[in-house]
Amino acid sequence: xxxxxxxxxxxxxxxxxxxxxxxxxxxxxxxxxxxxxxxxxxxxxxxxxxxxxxxxxxxxxxxxxxxxxxxxxxxxxxxxxxxxxxxxxxxxxxxxxxxxxxxxxxxxxxxxxxxxxxxxxxxxxxxxxxxxxxxxxxxxxxxxxxxxxxxxxxxxxxxxxxxxxxxxxxxxxxxxxxxxxxxxxxxxxxxxxxxxxxxxxxxxxxxxxxxxxxxxxxxxxxxxxxxxxxxxxxxxxxxxxxxxxxxxxxxxxxxxxxxxxxxxxxxxxxxxxxxxxxxxxxxxxxxxxxxxxxxxxxxxxxxxxxxxxxxxxxxxxxxxxxxxxxxxxxxxxxxxxxxxxxxxxxxxxxxxxxxxxxxxxxxxxxxxxxxxxxxxxxxxxxxxxxxxxxxxxxxxxxxxxxxxxxxxxxxxxxxxxxxxxxxxxxxxxxxxxxxxxxxxxxxxxxxxxxxxxxxxxxxxxxxxxxxxxxxxxxxxxxxxxxxxxxxxxxxxxxxxxxxxxxxxxxxx
Length: 508
Description:
This protein has 20 helices and no strands. The protein has helices at 2-17, 25-56, 61-87, 90-112, 116-119, 123-132, 137-144, 146-174, 177-191, 193-206, 212-219, 228-254, 279-287, 290-320, 324-355, 358-381, 383-389, 397-428, 433-465, 471-507.
């Protein structure tokens, strides 16, 4: 009896920590390491794009980037993707997209950035435009750093296109709902260790600037520190991980999916990933689907609240870390803690998904974001109260705001990676192939960018109408919008749960 009891306890512990069966490892491990590579690049690119734009232009310009540049490019990409999905299978589309993105990063790091004075308009020209058109100052500043804007757009699309669309669409196609409850959180568990690695490498490369003279002597030429070499090294590592990701994707398609055991994972034809509808028919199908509409609203709500929160937070970071290297170093440390927290939440999320309903799991992300976001805005909107409260000790309100904002970002993104992504992707599984492919393309690429763009519209409109406006002055308004969006999110998740439960029962 004692032996059986010990065996039962060990089995329960194994189920909690590692719910993957030995027979499933052939498919699970390549998928998990594929996500690791993709998330490593996502983390590195997120830090690079912010380290370029925020110190040199300002956090306020992010709202203009997301509304007037990222959103239109996302729409154009969706149109191209829908057409490609009629011509090619997912495998070849993945290679085209990843290699195209990597080419842009290499072009920027090794050609445009080192010689930016040659490619960018002169500062005198930009200053003259700013004097003549003060209401359009942020558009003019973007023009002055147009290559920064270009790499920001492509880096921003990495998460929506490569992670949310390509990886999860492939996973949804080969994995059934019963496996998804165990697989999806564990994908994140392994994948989010990429955040930790990316953070450490960022700090290492940023620290190279401290010994720039020795490195320049060794290389025999001036490399343009403070950040050129750090950027080039980071893009080199990103390229390597991108190539590994494409190799893993080929291995999955050419070896793993031909295994007889893997074919039992899903009722979908694993090789039938090419769709048949025209672009007009696809849009009509998407617009007529209330189910996809609920998913889009959920994605928009997440993007909107995150955009509303990140603007004021990044503005505070710039005040304390004004240079590219300082900003990159801070983001590196932030990514390390983000990765540690995300991995911890993956273990929790995996067990929540298996033990509780889809609705309970889907409600946790807006709950945590709502609580932590309200705490952050309270701190930003009422700084005098906290200054008086902590008047007896050395108190730096900027540093305190950064720490509170970082804690909010870490907790909200950890629950997003562990529960929001998993529950959202599970919602696609019961759908038809056309909706899983083209409906997901519209929901993920356009929906994610539309959410961020709505927040950007509110911010950019205020900055355009009132050129002297700052994030500090507009935080009370942003706090009200934030709370309203969280309430809409809760209502939408409840409605989506009703439709999801109905479809899952029909497909059993």
